[in-house]
Each structure stands twice: as C-alpha cells, then as structure tokens.
Design goal:
mainly alpha, 65% helix, 9 helices
C-alpha cells in the first residue's frame, strides 16, 4: 500500500489533470508512480519535464532505459526496474540486453562503459575521477553524452527514491531484483 494518496486524474485540480492527461496519452494509462508524484504539481512538472527532455537527448531511448534498470536494481527499486524493463524493450532492447543492463553489463563495449560509469556515480555519490571520465571518452562518449549520463542517473535516483520511500504499488510486469552481493 502506498504511503501517499494516488491521485485520481478524474478527481483532481485542473493543473494536475492536464499533466496526468499528457502522461496517460504517452503511456496509454497513468502509471501509479505519476499518480503518487501528482500530490506535488511542482514535483510532477519536474519529473515529467525531465523525462521529456532526456528522452530526446543524444543517448537515445534504449541506452537511457538500460541506465535506468541498472540504477533501479542498485537502489532496490522494484517499480522502476519493472517499468524501465518494459520501456527498454519498447525502445528496441532485447530481454537479454535488459537483464544484462540490470547487472550493469552489456556485450556492447560502449553501452558497458556507460553502465559502469552510471553505477560509479550511484555507488560513489558522484565522486568520480578524471580516469572514470577518460574511460567514457575512450568508449566513444563526448561531453554532451557524459552530462546526459549523469542527468539520467539523477532522474532515476529521483524516481527510485519516490517509489521506494513512498512504497508505490508496481503496476508493470514484475522483474526480480538481482541478489545483493
């Protein structure tokens, strides 16, 4: 049971309804996470705007979703793991690619470099080194990509924390978290 009210789009303020209608149009439904976040229109605007902005960034949807599942698994966020696994497959990733990304791995060296870096940002609370940045550049990433990887991590920390702290009910097909090492 969620720790906060899940806003009903049919029974809320015009401002919330307008945002939730956009979300519903994008997903074909209104995911519970957005209903929980809708308790704060400011937070909902921030989250939805970030998804839109990063979704049209240079990393592409597939890599963005692979980063999302890696971060979700690391943060033990069942909601985000489930949602982004579905979204990643919708963005062209195979089930195997999403399972590997969940573990921070990829058979593609460029994707692997991004996932390794993203998890270092999470694990080291953004205290990455020049060598970490150099490894990304050696993997084919430029500054624009590097900044977007950090932005994807930050957005996913936001969504992970919302879902874990508020115990938002998962409304996507469940995906098992990796065992804690």
């Amino acid at each position: 049971m969620s720790h906060v009210y899940l806003v009903n789009p049919a029974q809320t303020s015009a401002e919330r309804k307008a945002l939730l209608d956009q979300i519903h149009a994008a997903f074909g439904a209104t995911p519970n996470m957005f209903k929980a976040v809708a308790n704060s229109p400011a937070a909902l605007k921030s989250m939805w705007g970030s998804f839109g902005a990063l979704g049209s960034g240079v990393l592409g949807a597939k890599l963005g979703e692979q980063i999302a599942v890696a971060v979700a698994d690391r943060n033990r966020c069942e909601y985000c793991l489930a949602a982004h696994t579905v979204l990643g497959q919708g963005a062209g990733a195979t089930a195997q690619e999403m399972a590997a990304a969940q573990a921070g791995q990829s058979s593609d060296p460029k994707t692997a470099a991004a996932l390794i870096f993203a998890l270092k940002v999470v694990d080291q609370r953004a205290q990455v080194t020049l060598e970490d940045i150099a490894a990304l550049r050696a993997g084919g990433f430029e500054d624009e990509h590097i900044v977007e990887i950090v932005a994807h991590v930050a957005l996913n920390l936001f969504t992970n924390y919302i879902n874990v702290a508020l115990q938002v009910p998962v409304d996507f097909p469940k995906v098992k978290l990796n065992p804690i090492a």
